[in-house]
Structure formats: C-alpha cells, structure tokens
Amino acid sequence: MPPVLFRTAVAKDLPTILALLADDAIARERKGYVVEPTPALAAAFDEIAADPNNELLVGEQEGEVVACLQLTYIPGLSRGGMRRALVEAVRVRGDLRGQGVGARLMDEAFARARARGCGLMQLTTDKRRPAAHRFYARLGFEATHEGMKRAL
C-alpha cells in the first residue's frame, strides 16, 4: 500500500472531507447531513482553520485525501490545569479501512496533542458503532464516562 502522509487540511479539501463524513449510514440519518460544500460549511471550515485550538487533519495517499479528523485542544482547570485534546469526526475511506490508516491517523493526533502539552485525549463514539469501539480500545481508550448530548 502506498504511504499515507498526514497534514493540516486546506480549503480545497472540504468536498472530500464532507464525502468522508457522509460515507456512513449513521451520519446519513442525522439532521444536517450535507455532501456538497455550502457557504455555512465553508465558514465553519474557515473558523476551525483560524482557531489556534482546532486542527482538521487529513491523511493523503498519492495526492488524494483518504482520511480525516478534527482535533480540539481544551485548556481546563480540572486535573491541575491539564490540557486535553478532543478528537472528533474520525473517518477513513471505506476501501482502506482495516489497513492501519486509522491507527496511523490517530498516532498523528496523539503526537500533535502531546506537542501541545495535552495530558489526555478524549472522544465520543456512537453507541451503534461496535467496530469503532473495538478500534479505540485497541488504541488504549477506555470507556470511563457516559457521554450525553442535547440539541439546542
């Protein structure tokens, strides 16, 4: 398999990132499911890109984006002021799943979080994703808390 290189996303990556996010039955049933860039999505991308506490990472293979995630750095007062990293929207192109791309993408996220002084990485994963739960457990994540969400 050709190597996958990781970098910060740029605006021209947005359509491919959206396609990766949408390549998922659970995502398609959620409100706000969008495949094509819109002005609101472009504005959200620009806001993330401008925020020093956010990164959109992509994995690129032979010039094509094949994986992505969003990494948010959170300063906090708990745990002695420890910074933490929140990882969201982890996706790998369907035909590359199970080949180690996701693990390498997460390794890149771990390295970036450590470099930013984070002592903890956290995430949520849909309860309907048992394969994702096994993936994150293999990476050392533990289900120590119950996540909750509320629409606003």
What does this molecule look like?
The protein is an alpha+beta fold and 152 residues long. 35% of the residues lie in helices and 26% in strands. It has 6 helices and 5 strands; from the N terminus they run E-H-H-H-E-E-H-E-H-E-H. It has helices at 14-22, 25-28, 39-50, 78-81, 101-115, 130-138, and strands spanning 4-8, 54-61, 64-74, 83-92, 118-122. Strands 1-2-3-4-5 form a 5-stranded mixed β-sheet, with helices on both faces. It starts with a strand and ends in a 14-residue tail after the last helix. The mean pLDDT is 93.
Multimerization state: single chain
Ends distance: 44 Å
Q: Report the structural category.
A: alpha+beta
Strand order of the largest sheet: 1-2-3-4-5
Low-confidence stretches: none
Helices and strands in order, then pairings?
Layout: E1 4-8, H1 14-22, H2 25-28, H3 39-50, E2 54-61, E3 64-74, H4 78-81, E4 83-92, H5 101-115, E5 118-122, H6 130-138
Parallel strand pairs: 4-5
Antiparallel strand pairs: 1-2, 2-3, 3-4
Characteristics of this structure?
single chain, 152 residues, alpha+beta, five-stranded mixed sheet, 6 helices, globular
Give a brief outline of the structure.
With 152 residues, the protein is α+β, with helices and mostly antiparallel strands. 35% of the residues lie in helices and 26% in strands. It has helices at 14-22, 25-28, 39-50, 78-81, 101-115, 130-138; strands at 4-8, 54-61, 64-74, 83-92, 118-122.
